[in-house]
Sequence to fold (314 residues):
Amino acid sequence: MNVEVAIVTILQALVMVAISPLMAGIIRKMKALMQGKVGPSIIQPYRDLRKLMRKGRVAGKSHTWLFSAVPYLCLSSMLILALMVPFVYVEVASPYIDLITMVYLFTLFRFAMVLGGLEGGSVFGGMGSSREMMMSVLIEPALLLSIMSMVALTGGSTGISNIPDVLCEMGLAAVGPTLILATTSFMITLLAENARVPFDNPATHLELTMVHEAMVLEYSGRKLGMMELASQIRLTLFMVMVGTLFLPWGIATEFTLPALVVATVAIVAKLLIIAAVIAIVECTVAKLRLFKTPNLLTISFTLSLLAMISIYIL
Fold:
């Protein structure tokens, strides 16, 4: 990887991290407007993070070093992923990592959060952790299979740059059952992985329905801010993956200024569209009961499996 690509890799990772709270604010604003409300400013998440980073930490007597280490592990795993996921230029770090590594870094984030929920020592933390592990049994196969469907469609290489490169070369010929099914499956997984409606409500603190919020309930101050930032980065990374791996048209495949400008405009448009889709889903679909969520995750897994099968029968 030459110096120019390394610089672009670092810059676009920094941009993804910087805009993560903004994407959360945009989704929140869109939801408020759709519900006929004014809603908070789109930069409110930045203010919340600043407030949390300035606050002191309250620790329980049962908290161990592992409880304190979880926020650093979650945030560092997301920062590593930000360096791995293509944003505007396709060749980011592709010689060194692949899509399987990305999937298991997401799994590492979830495992760390579950540990944090258990180490907190509260009943709600353990409840949220158990619910998260129940859903992860179906989330991970659907996530992995939807990505592997795209790998099979584009020639079998798990390199990061392979899928966008091949799909861009195929053009509209790539649009077919495999792409549609895999993208739909991945979008359902996006909602489940990021604790969005209908799987969870990120705005609730009702103990009977919490999943993600229950696992971070014992955190406070700077550690809570780190957990919130890590979750916002994870949501942005999933949105970017939809725009660059499943719908990559517009991404820069050549390191030229015009190509990078076009790619920047394209990814901004894609992120806003994906944010609007998430907001529409959360405004029109009710949160599912806990034991109904496996049904929707099974649908996601089935769609990704059909995407894989369609490659060989069509």
In short: The mean pLDDT is 90. DSSP finds eleven helices and no strands in the chain. Residues 146 and 309 are 11 Å apart (CA to CA). The longest helix spans residues 3-34.
